């Protein structure tokens, strides 16, 4: 049996730098000369890719250096003018540039082969991918050779003055807390400089500690009326925590902008017509950014709740291919953004929870909100308040909370029972499928759905 190798958990922190005006000029020159070298190297590597493409990373860098860099053992490199143009270029900066250029060439050739064989062509007249050697790259810094860290307040960086390479000390004014986690390994940061800020992009290889969770799960219902409804449920069916997460202010900001798009579109097209490419691009970008902000707020709170109760897993509905079929979201544009928001919340929650060693599972989404958690049958939505579900007994209850509790029950069954149980249909035609389990099935040990 082949054991699947676990995926590495790589997370990136942003460390804000506060360079002086003179240091900012030096950092800008460093980035510029690094990009110039990358453009030269891309051409060299593309020319010799037939020989270089089959080499490993450890073999590729020396092979390219033999083509461009003069040494005592290699007095006549084929591309000597590169070494003359970039005189005294630090070796570790050069090796980082070689790896970046090789990645650019490999990526382009892979995309071009996909285009040739039709894998990436949605249309018969689809154009081939473009080869762009002028990519906006940033230098990777190797510890001891390109940067020296003095505590977490200052960093020495090797920079280019225009004629020589010198060390300069820059103040660190903002960082996060991944460097404080004992199991995290700091990798080579990248030096980022743009018109807005100067910072280090610092990746960490995270190795979470082995957890000893309690017997409960945190279930999430990503609803229409409430962004996320959380229910923490133990294995015996006891609900120990409920919470509604709904950053309404951010959602209103997003929907207000989307409404302005609809108004401008109607004024532009009139009764008929077609919108030009890039119509309201800035507004769409702002709405996507707001969606991302909401996703981070909601996912952060979900992970905090799961950590607070030391949950065994976070349980979501499997919403792949989900489309809104009801509710009060009448606008198709708002529905699309709402669907994208659900996917982002699910993705960000898994990323944050995996970083601390947690597990995320998906369950069958059918009838989680339609079946009453107490086993009384199918519920109906309240005609006056769509957020409420009306039970057969006449009781009114939060529809999203009802769904979250049923999601938790299915997650517990999936964790504690046989792996294939949730996906097997019932052997008896008189029973409902086992994947339709409700919270009440945890209360009754001899329930037919658990048999």
From TrEMBL:
Domain Probable transposase IS891/IS1136/IS1341: from-to ranges: 208-322
GO annotation (BP), single: DNA recombination
InterPro entries assigned to the protein according to its UniProt record, in alphabetical order: Cas12f1-like_TNB, Transposase
Entry keyword Transferase: no
Molecular function per GO: DNA binding
Pfam family, one: OrfB_IS605
Lineage: superkingdom: Bacteria
Keywords tagged on the record: DNA recombination, DNA-binding, Transposition
NCBIfam families: IS200/IS605 family accessory protein TnpB-like domain
Family stated for the protein in its record: In the C-terminal section; belongs to the transposase 35 family.
Protein name per UniProt: Transposase
């Amino acid at each position: 049996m082949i054991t699947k190798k676990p995926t590495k958990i790589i997370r990136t922190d942003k460390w804000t730098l506060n360079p002086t005006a003179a240091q900012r000029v030096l950092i800008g020159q460093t980035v510029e000369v690094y990009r110039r070298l990358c453009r030269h190297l891309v051409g060299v590597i593309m020319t010799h890719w037939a020989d270089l493409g089959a080499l490993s990373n450890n073999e590729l860098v020396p092979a390219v250096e033999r083509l461009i860099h003069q040494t005592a053992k290699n007095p006549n490199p084929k591309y000597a003018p590169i070494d003359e143009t970039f005189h005294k270029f630090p070796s570790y900066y050069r090796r980082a540039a070689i790896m970046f250029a090789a990645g650019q060439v490999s990526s382009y050739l892979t995309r071009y082969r996909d285009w040739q064989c039709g894998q990436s062509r949605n249309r018969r007249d689809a154009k081939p991918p473009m080869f762009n050697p002028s990519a906006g790259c940033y230098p990777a810094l190797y510890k001891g050779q390109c940067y020296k860290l003095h505590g977490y307040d200052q960093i020495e960086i090797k920079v280019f003055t225009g004629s020589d390479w010198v060390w300069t000390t820059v103040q660190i004014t903002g960082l996060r807390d991944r460097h404080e986690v004992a199991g995290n390994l700091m990798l080579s940061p990248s030096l980022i400089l743009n018109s807005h800020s100067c910072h280090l992009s610092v990746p960490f290889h995270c190795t979470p500690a082995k957890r000893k969770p309690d017997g409960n799960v945190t279930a999430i219902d990503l609803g229409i009326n409430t962004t996320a409804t959380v229910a923490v449920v133990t294995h015996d069916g006891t609900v120990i925590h409920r919470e509604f997460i709904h950053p309404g202010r951010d959602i209103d900001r997003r929907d207000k902008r989307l409404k302005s798009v609809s108004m401008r579109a109607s004024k532009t097209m009139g009764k008929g017509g077609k919108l030009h490419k890039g119509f309201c691009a800035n507004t769409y970008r702002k709405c996507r950014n707001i969606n991302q902000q909401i996703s981070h707020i909601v996912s952060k709170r979900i992970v905090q709740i799961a950590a607070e109760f030391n949950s065994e897993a976070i349980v979501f509905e499997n919403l792949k291919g989900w489309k809104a079929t009801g509710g009060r979201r009448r606008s198709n544009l708002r529905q699309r953004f709402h669907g994208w928001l659900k996917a982002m919340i699910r993705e960000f929650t898994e990323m944050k929870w995996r970083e601390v060693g947690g597990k995320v599972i998906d369950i069958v989404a059918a009838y989680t909100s339609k079946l009453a958690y107490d086993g009384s049958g199918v519920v109906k939505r309240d005609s006056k308040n769509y957020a409420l579900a009306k039970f057969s007994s006449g009781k009114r209850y939060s529809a999203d909370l009802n769904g979250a509790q049923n999601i938790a029950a299915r997650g517990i069954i999936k964790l504690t029972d046989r792996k294939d149980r949730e996906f097997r249909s019932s052997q008896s035609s008189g029973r409902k499928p086992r994947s339709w389990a409700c919270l009440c099935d945890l209360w009754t040990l001899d329930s037919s759905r658990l048999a």
